[in-house]
Design a protein that fits this description.
- This protein has three helices and five strands, in the order βββαααββ.
- By secondary structure, the chain is an alpha/beta fold.
- The protein has one domain: Arc Repressor Mutant, subunit A (Orthogonal Bundle).
- α1 runs antiparallel to α2, α1 crosses α3 and α2 crosses α3.
């Protein structure tokens, strides 16, 4: 199997787990969102970037970005519809560091 190309993300999420308030965390099933899936959702849905521009920011191809975004959307929908915790962890990512002047 071919190794995954490193994906670049702007920042780490502040919270790593989101859960429904109806059940304690230890009683919930969970879905796992990788950092690159989190970043794809942020770029496409929050910043409203077109896939080609978002892919360039993450330094990946547009088809790869599309696959990552689709996977993230499916996991988030599963978590919301089936009342599961959504955890953010893992993925082959590097953080983009900006120089402060």
């Amino acid at each position: 199997m071919r190794p995954k190309k490193t994906r670049w993300v702007k920042c780490l999420p502040g919270e790593r787990c989101f859960k429904p308030i109806c059940k304690p965390l230890n009683k919930l099933e969970g879905v796992y969102l990788t950092l690159d899936e989190f970043e794809a959702m942020r770029l496409a849905c929050l910043e409203g970037l077109k896939q080609i521009n978002a892919a360039r920011k993450m330094k990946i191809s547009r088809p790869t970005f599309s696959r990552i975004l689709t996977s993230a959307q499916k996991k988030i929908a599963d978590g919301l519809v089936n009342i599961k915790a959504i955890r953010i962890e893992g993925g082959c990512c590097k953080i983009i560091r900006r120089n402060k002047r």
